[in-house]
C-alpha cells in the first residue's frame, strides 16, 4: 500500500459486547484509535495504523479486520511476549459500561524507539488520543515523539482527549493531555471530558480554553445536543442528526475519523463537523464499536434527508 494520508497511533482492544437482555457477549473490535482509523477508511481515505498486538488469536483477528477495511498495517508490531488487550461492554439504563483487561498489553509496551518516523512524516494527518498516552509512560512518550515528528514535517495533528480516569489520576491526565494539546492543530473533547479536565462548564468557555493552548480548531461534542466547533475567528454549534440510538460505543471515534476525512477534503471545519455528526449519529444505531460505523454513501444520504 502507498503511504497513507491519515495515520493513527494507539492501542486496539478486542471487544466483548453484551446487548441488553442477553447473557451472551458478542465478539468485536475496539480501541479508540483503531476505531477511528477504520471509520476514516469507510469514508474513503487511505489510512495506516501504528501499534503493537500480541501473537495471539485476538491480534490475528485485528490483522484480519484491518485487511478487510483497507488499513495499512506495515508498521504494526507483533509482540510474542505480550498479549492483545480486551474489554467488555455491558449496558444499563444510563448507557454503556466498560471493563478492561489491558495492563501489560503489547501496545502499552511500546516506546519512542518504536516510532516509524518516515511513516509519520509522509502522512497528511496524524491522529492520537489521551488513551494512547494513558496506557503507559512509554506510550505517552511515543505519542509526544510522534507529534513532534509530525509537526516538524508539516503534518497536521488531530488529538482526542478521551479521558479515562481508570487509567490514570486526573492531575497526571490533565498535565499530559494539555501538554499534547498545546502541540496539536485540532483538539476534540467531549463535554464530559472537558469539564473534568478544565473545570469549566460552558462549551464556549471550553473551546476558548483549548484555543488558547495553541490548536487552530477546538471541538466539543455534546451527544444529542450537537457539537461546538471553534476557530480563533468563528464559533458554531452544529446540531446532531435524529437517530434511534441503541449503543454509543465508538461514536466519538467515528466522529474523529469522519471529521478528518472531510476536513482534509474541504479544509472547512464546520462542514467537516456536520459530516462527522451524521456519521457518529448513524454509528449509534447498532451494537459494537465497528460494525455500525457507516460508509460514506450512508452519511451523505442522511445529510441529504436533512438529518442535521
Description of the structure:
The chain has 308 residues and is of the alpha/beta class. The chain has a single domain (6-11, 33-83, 111-304), classed as Ribokinase (UDP-N-acetylmuramoyl-L-alanine:D-glutamate ligase, 3-Layer(aba) Sandwich), CATH 3.40.1190. The protein is 39% helix and 22% strand. The protein contains eleven helices and 15 strands. It has helices at residues 32-42, 57-69, 117-121, 130-134, 137-152, 170-181, 191-198, 203-213, 251-266, 269-283, 296-304; strands at residues 6-9, 13-17, 26-30, 47-50, 52-54, 71-72, 77-79, 85-92, 95-101, 125-129, 156-160, 186-190, 217-221, 227-230, 235-238. A nine-stranded mixed beta sheet has the order 6-4-1-10-11-12-13-14-15, sandwiched between helices. A hairpin with a 5-residue loop joins β13 and β14 (227-230). α9 packs antiparallel against α10 (269-283) and α10 (269-283) crosses α11 (296-304). The longest helix has 16 residues, at 137-152. The chain is globular.
Determine the mean pLDDT. 94
Q: Structural class, judged by helices and strands?
A: alpha/beta
Helix content: 25-40%
CATH superfamily: Ribokinase
Number of domains: 1
- Report the total helices: 11
Number of strands: 15
- Main sheet record: 9 strands, mixed
Q: Classify the beta-strand content into a percent band.
A: 15-25%
User: Any idea of the CATH class?
Assistant: Alpha Beta
Biggest sheet, strands in spatial order? 6-4-1-10-11-12-13-14-15
| Shape designation | globular
- H/E series: EEEHEEHEEEEHEHHEHEHHEEEHHH
| Head-to-tail CA distance between termini | 35 Å
Radius of gyration: 18 Å
Amino acid at each position: 500500500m502507498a503511504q497513507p494520508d491519515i495515520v493513527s497511533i494507539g492501542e486496539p482492544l478486542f471487544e466483548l459486547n453484551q446487548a441488553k437482555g442477553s447473557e451472551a457477549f458478542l465478539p468485536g473490535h475496539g480501541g479508540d484509535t483503531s476505531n477511528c482509523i477504520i471509520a476514516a477508511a469507510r469514508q474513503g481515505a487511505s489510512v495506516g495504523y501504528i501499534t503493537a498486538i500480541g501473537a495471539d488469536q485476538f491480534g490475528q483477528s485485528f490483522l484480519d479486520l484491518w485487511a478487510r477495511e483497507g488499513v495499512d498495517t506495515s508498521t504494526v508490531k507483533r509482540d510474542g511476549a505480550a498479549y492483545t488487550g480486551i474489554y467488555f461492554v455491558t449496558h444499563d439504563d444510563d448507557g454503556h459500561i466498560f471493563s478492561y483487561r489491558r495492563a501489560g498489553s503489547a501496545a502499552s509496551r511500546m516506546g519512542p524507539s518504536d516510532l516509524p518516523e518516515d511513516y509519520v512524516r509522509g502522512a497528511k494527518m496524524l491522529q492520537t488520543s489521551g488513551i494512547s498516552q494513558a496506557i503507559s509512560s512509554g506510550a505517552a512518550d511515543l505519542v509526544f515523539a510522534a507529534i513532534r515528528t509530525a509537526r516538524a514535517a508539516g503534518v497536521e495533528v488531530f488529538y482526542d482527549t478521551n479521558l479515562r480516569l481508570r487509567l490514570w489520576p486526573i492531575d497526571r491526565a490533565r498535565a499530559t493531555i494539555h501538554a499534547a494539546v498545546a502541540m496539536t492543530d485540532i483538539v476534540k473533547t467531549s463535554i464530559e471530558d472537558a469539564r473534568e479536565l478544565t473545570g469549566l462548564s460552558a462549551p464556549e468557555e471550553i473551546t476558548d480554553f483549548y484555543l488558547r493552548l495553541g490548536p487552530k480548531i477546538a471541538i466539543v461534542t455534546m451527544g444529542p445536543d450537537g457539537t461546538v466547533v471553534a476557530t480563533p475567528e468563528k464559533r458554531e454549534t452544529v446540531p446532531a442528526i435524529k437517530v434511534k440510538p441503541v449503543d454509543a460505543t465508538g461514536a466519538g471515534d467515528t466522529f474523529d475519523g469522519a471529521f478528518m476525512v472531510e476536513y482534509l477534503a474541504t479544509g472547512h471545519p464546520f462542514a467537516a463537523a456536520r459530516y462527522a455528526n451524521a456519521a457518529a449519529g448513524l454509528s449509534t444505531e447498532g451494537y459494537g464499536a465497528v460494525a455500525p460505523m457507516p460508509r460514506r454513501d450512508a452519511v451523505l444520504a442522511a445529510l441529504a434527508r436533512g438529518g442535521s
